[in-house]
Amino acid sequence: MGVGILAALLFAGSVAPASAIGTGRGHTQEPEAACSTAPTGKTIEQKINGRPYLLFVPAGLSGPAPLIVALHGGRSNPTTFEKQTGWTDFASSHKVIVAYPRGSKNEGENQWAWEFARNTGPDVGFLRQVVADIRARHCVARNRIHFVGHSNGGQMTSRMACDAADLIASAAVWAGPKGAWDKNDCPASRPIAFGVMLNDNDPVVWQAVAEQHRDLWREMNGCTTEHGESGPGVVRGQRFDCAAGTKVVYRLYDGPDDATKAHVWPPNPRGADVRNRMWQLFDANRLP
């Protein structure tokens, strides 16, 4: 399959199936008036103008906490993505609030995707509303709002980093192509730290596509010096120092023997390593 055909498929919404590192707890600011630290107990559904998102607030918050907004892949949904990624358990142990919004594009029974093209569709505005809704109800550290995406949700994460850098501290994707064609299509108001990770035998998002995404953020951030990274199953690990003090991270993992499973968000222990590395990036790169 050519890269042009691949890009067209991903534009329409790519198919999505099915020990903590980092010490930052995110309690860096005084609570706002009426700021609630009450836990949800379990993941609950909230709605904005009839459109849902799932929300989990862990027990034990003592003040404003980081917020991770996790975006499912194409032809998926928040419930499936929550089960795949393990972010809720991570949020419980790390005292992080996590939200799982739903894409706007209906692609079948309980299958949704994101409209990531610039100035197209309602999704940028909706995701801003999701963050505002959570901040109105719960204690969120304003400098600790991070986005994570998978596949087509990775494209939407990239678009949010381009269009909402005033809101997002840092972001990362698993098997996510870029959501902007080039620097001119990405009007980010400031440099923003970004991570791109995938398996080396991903049949949907090829390495060259992921490297294009990595290089977009290297250009956006003015990155120069490269450092190697290692980790369980990491075939190629890179960390780039950038002009404004941000980082760009790229991790290529040794994919599963069954290549049909290489595109999905990885199960543990690989999934734990991905979450932990993303969290390290987030913890070190907060909104100025």
Automatic annotation (TrEMBL):
Signal peptide start-end: 1-20
Keyword Thylakoid recorded: no
Alphabetical list of Gene3D superfamilies matching this protein: alpha/beta hydrolase
Protein name: Polyhydroxybutyrate depolymerase
Domain of life, source organism: Bacteria
Membrane spanning stretches: none
InterPro entries (alphabetical): AB_hydrolase_fold, Esterase_phb, Plant_Biomass_Hydrol_Est
GO-annotated molecular function: hydrolase activity
UniProt xrefs under Pfam families: Esterase_PHB (PF10503)
Assigned keywords, A-Z: Hydrolase, Signal
GO CC terms: extracellular region
